[in-house]
Amino acid sequence: MPTLHFGRQICSTLAEGTSREWLVADGLGGYAMGTVSGLRTRRYHGLLVTTREHPGARFLAVASLDFVVVVGDRRIALATHQWASGAIEPKGHCHLSHFSLIDGVPRWRWTIGDIVIEREVAMVHGAPTVAVHHRLIAADRDVRLELTPLCTWRDAHGERLAAGDPVVEATADGFVFERNLRVAGPSWKPAGVWYRGAYLAEEAARGLNAVEDLWAAGSFEQRLAPGQSVSIIATADLTSALPVKAEQVIDAARARARAVLVSANAGDETDQQLVLAADQFVVTAASGPSVVAGYPWFGEWSRDTMTSYEGLFLETRRWDEGRALLLRAAGTLSRGMLANTADAGGLEYNTSDATLWFVHAIARHVAVTGDIDLADALAEAVGDIVDHHLVGTRFGIGVDASDGLLSQGEDGWALTWMDARVDGHPVTPRRGKAVDINALWINALGSTAALAYAARRPADKFSALEATARTSFHKGFVRDDGHGLLDLAESDSIIDAADSRQVRPNQLLALSLPYAAGGPASVVEVCRRELLTDRGLRSLSPADPAYVGRHRGDPAARDRAYHQGTVWPWLVGPYVDAAFRVGERPTTVLDNVADQLLEAGIGSISETADGDAPYRGTGCPFQAWSVAEVLRARRRLLSDSAEISRLQV
Fold first, then answer.
1. CB of 3 closer than 8 Å to CB of 102
2. Dihedral angle, C-alpha 321, 322, 324, 325, nearest 10 °
3. d(CA 74, CA 88)
4. pLDDT confidence of residue 67
5. CB 624, CB 292: distance < 8 Å
6. Which one, of 170, 149, 173, 184, lies nearest residue 60 by Cα?
7. Alpha-carbon distance 379 to 361, whole Å?
8. Coil, helix or strand for 307?
9. Which pLDDT band holds residue 11 (cuts at 50, 70, 90)?
10. At what angle do helices 246-263 and 269-279 cross, to 10 degrees?
11. Tens digits of residue pLDDT in 400-418
C-alpha cells in the first residue's frame, strides 16, 4: 500500500499547505484537485472538473465544498473560502493535523481539541463523478457539520463573474445546477447566494485574472456522533444513477489502485507511487486510449504522449491499451506528420519531433511485446512517414539530399520540444538541422528498418538512409573542441553560429536512443557538469549569457525562461540511457525521487523546476513525461544494480 504522509508541519505556515497540491483523476481527463491546506489558489482547482468532447476540453463544476464544524456556539471553518461572517473562525487550516495519500486517495484529518474529523476524496473511474466523505473519528460530544458546495459551470481556463442567478432545480436529495451538475447529500437546505471575489493567488502570481464568483445553492447538514459519517456526491452525468455510498467509491478507487500495481509488477514504495502517478495520465477518449500531457491545463499532446509511451504503457504492462493508442494515432497521420494537439478543438500539425517519437514508440512496443502483427499493421504508415520526410512536408521539414540529415523550421515557429513563443516569436527557434531532431531521425530510420524486417518486408532502403545520415551526423555535429555535440549543425547557413554551440541537453538523444546517432563520451560529461541537477537537467548551461535561472512571473516571462535554463525532469531518462551507452552507471542520479513525490504535485512529478537552487518545482505540478521517464530510468538503474549484485554473489 503506497502511502505518502504529512504531519502537523504542513500547517506551520499557510504557504506550506498551499504550495503542495493533490490530484484525483477520473480516467476520462477530468479530475478533482486542490491544495493540501484546502484553499483554492488556481482557477483549475475544484472537486469536480469534467471533460466534454476531448480530454483537453474541461469545465469546472464544483469549485469547493465549504466545511464548517459547529460545536456548541462555536462555528469553525476548516476547508472553506473563508468569506463568512466573523462568527466563523477564519483559521481552519491551522487545525489540519495530517494529510496522507493512500493508494492514490487523499485523506485529511483536522484536530480541534478532542475532536478529530477526517475527509477523503475519490472519483468513479470512467465517470465524471466525485465522492467526498467525512467521518467523525473522535469527539467528547456530538458535532454538526455544514457542507456548502460552491458551484459554477465554466471553461477550466477561464473565470466567471456573477451575472444573474443561475438555474438551480431541487431534487429529493440535493439539487441540479444549470442542467449540467447534480449534487446529492443529506438534509439539503436550499439557499442561493453569490460568493464574490474568490481570490486565486497562483493566478495572480502568473499575471492572470485572479478573481471569480461562485454560487452557493445551499448546504447539507448532519449531526454526527463519534464513528458516524456524512458524504456528498457530485456528478456531471445526469443520465446515470449516483453511487449508493461514498465509501463504495473510495473502496473501489483503492482496490483499482492495488490492481494497477499488481498488473504493473510494481516494486518498492517509490516505484509503486510512480506507477499510480502514471495511471492518472492514461485516459479513455471517445476514440480510444489517450494520454493527458499534464494536469491541470494540458490535454492530448502527441509529442508528450509518444515521449512518455515507454514509461506509461510498456513499463506498466498496459500493452493492449498502448497498442490501441498507437493504431489510433496512426489514423491522424497527414503528409507524414502526426498531429501534435487537438486541445484547440482541431488537429494541429506543428511539430517536427512528435512523429519521430511515434516511430520510436512503435518500435519499442514491438521490441518489448513481440507484437509482430502490430509491426505489419503499421509498416506501411511508418514507411510513408519516411517517404514524406524525404521529399519534404509542412514547415520546411525535409531531408537535405546532400547529406541525408533532416532540416526543419519556418519563420515565427518553434517546432522542436523547445517550442515556447512570446508574442508570436519563438524564444528558441532552432531552425535548421537540430541535434535532437536528427538523432530522432536516425533512430526512426533504424526503427523503420527493424519494423520492416520483423514484418518480413524490404528494409534495405531504410538501413541505407540510416547509414548515410549517421555518417553526416558525425561530420556535422561533433564539436571541434571536444565538448560534446553542437545543438545545431554549424554548416547550416540558416542558424547563428553562437546558437549552435549552446550547451543544451538535446545532444543526449544522440546517445540515448536505441538506434543511436552516436557521439563522444564528452556528451555525458558536459551535460553532467553544466546541466544536471537533483531535479533533472537544465535546458541551457548557466554559463550561457541567455541563461534564466528562475521560471517565474507572467506568461511571457515564464515562456522566455521555459527553455533557457529551466530544469526538465523528463530529461533524466535520456541522461541515464546516454550514461549507460558510454559505460557509466549513474547510480545516484535519482536518489531524491522520493523527495520529489512530496513536493509540488503530491505523489507525482512536476513539469519543470527552477534552474537555480533549490530547484523549486514549476509549471504543471502533474506531468506525464516527467513521471514516465523517471519511472523508466529508475527501473533501469535498479535492474542494473540488481544484476551487479547477482554477479557479485
1. yes
2. 120
3. 8
4. 87
5. yes
6. 149
7. 13
8. helix
9. very low
10. 110
11. 999 999 999 999 999 999 9
Q: How far apart are CA 515 and CA 233, in angstroms?
A: 51
- Beta strand extents in 395-481 (DSSP E only): 398-399, 406-407, 421-422, 425-426
First and final CA of the chain: distance in angstroms?
31
d(CA 20, CA 36): 6
Q: d(Cα 229, Cα 135) in Å, to the nearest integer?
A: 4
The pLDDT tens digits of the residues spanning 425-469 come to 999 989 999 999 999 999 999 999 999 999 999 999 999 999 999
Residues paired with 106 in a beta bridge = 101
Angle between helices 354-369 and 302-309 in degrees, nearest 10: 30
Give the three-state DSSP class for 375: helix
**267: which residues sit within 8 A by CB, 6+ positions away?**
635, 638
| Side chain identity, residue 239 | T
- C-alpha cell, 601: 504535485
**Tens digit of each residue's pLDDT (9 = 90 or more) over 544-587:** 999 999 999 999 999 999 999 999 999 999 999 999 999 999 99
- The 3-state DSSP class for residue 241 equals coil
- 480 by Cβ neighbours in 10 Å (0-12 / 13-18 / 19+) ranks as exposed
C-alpha to C-alpha distances, 305 to 299, 326, 443, 610, 613, nearest whole angstrom: 10, 10, 18, 24, 29
CA distances to 117, 128, 138, 252 from 113, rounded to whole Å, are 11, 37, 10, 33
Take residue 641 and report the three cell numbers written for it. Answer: 544494480
Give the count of alpha carbons within 13 A of 1, CB side only: 9
DSSP-based three-state secondary structure for 548: coil
Q: Are residues 522 and 508 in contact, defined by beta-carbon separation less than 8 angstroms?
A: no
